[in-house]
Amino acid sequence: MITLTKTEAARFLLLRQGLMGPRSRGGKAAALERVRDLGSVQFDPINVFGRSADLTLLARIEGYRPDWLRQLLYEDRRLCDYYDKCMCVFPAEDLPYFSRTRRMFEEHPRGREALQALRPAVLALASEKEYVTSADLDDGARLTWSWGRRASLANAAAERLFHEGKLVIHHKTGNQRAYSLPETVGLAEHLTAPDPNITEEQYHDWAILRRVGAVGLLPDRGSDAFLSIIDLDASKRHGAFARLTERGALLPVEVEGKTYYLAERHKTLLEQARTARPGTRCELLAPLDNLLWDRRLIRELFGFDYKWEIYTPAKDRKYGYYVVPVLYGERFVGRAESAADRAGGALLLKSFWPEEGFRASGGFRRALEGTLSRLARMNGLREVRIECSI
Q1: What does the DSSP 8-state code read for residue 164?
Q2: Among residues 339, 344, 343, 350, which one has the least CA distance to residue 375?
Q3: Residue 285 — φ and ψ, nearest 5°?
Q4: pLDDT of residue 278
Q5: What tens digit of pLDDT does each residue of 271-315 get?
Q6: Are 237 and 226 in contact (CB under 8 A)?
Q7: Pairing assessment for the beta strands 2-4 and 79-84 based on DSSP bridges
Q8: DSSP-derived pairing of the beta strands 2-4 and 250-255
Q9: I need a labelling partner for 328 at 20 to 30 A (CA). Which of 58, 133, 172, 267 fits?
Q10: Residues contacting 146, CB < 8 A, separation 6+
């Protein structure tokens, strides 16, 4: 059994995530490599001062620009957006592993009967054009669709066909999807390839190993880090952890009486974690950053209790609608509320809540201002305006 202190385990996680030491350089190629290394980066359409996937990559890549991700997704087709842990961005060559997910959507009863008759017409329209948009698909008829929203029947049919792998996202305009046939954009080979995981056990082993690698350390317990793994209950999860450990693909680690697991391929980072110096790097992490996929883990190892309050009723929020963790060196030192004032050309820091016992030094202020400047540049904004005390 490998034994680590909490400090060493926290440093290991930061090293694994690319959040300690220098940020990656190399432009779009570095963005592709980072997504491949993590396996998946979670996507969310909300854009207060950057979408979640872009904030995740900005925290790891020097000079990151959202256009790099757009090109990798919709021009180069090296990445795709589909369901892994909820909606994610991941390498296009991983699509064969999601055959079960596509079958699950094919069998899902929601809207199935109402949409069945529209499928041939939507597919026929997509075969006639390079891509179809909501304007092409809006037939005036409506139904209650995902997240309780009202959607046109034809749009819902296209979305269901996307879930099933019969359509793919050609591009997006804002958050509006344009769909095309997989063969139109060169993804048909990935979507028709056989599932590499023949049995359910093989699938669960692959998915658990993928999620542990995407975070760095995870325990064998219920966790948001395991969301969307099909038919995974506690017994099957235990079985997957046991098989992966027996094969040596996962290594158990004891941290002050608790057992976590890391992927064997990341074992080389352990010695670095024992000797690493925290540095003075500062990042505002996306609420869905890979490091935060298991928030109980963050409480245990960093002593930081974070809740994304975007779905909490306003009257019940402790902090705010889109408040993100502030990482400085090897510590979470507080929470920040930022916003992009696009009309005024400024990135705003509206509020900062320090953790108990943290006192902002001149070095921290400089590091935070540097990070806010990076955020401003990513959003195409000219300046940073700090509207609160630090």
Answers
A1: H
A2: 339
A3: -85, 140
A4: 85
A5: 999 998 889 999 999 999 999 999 999 999 999 999 999 999 999
A6: yes
A7: unpaired
A8: parallel
A9: 267
A10: 110, 159
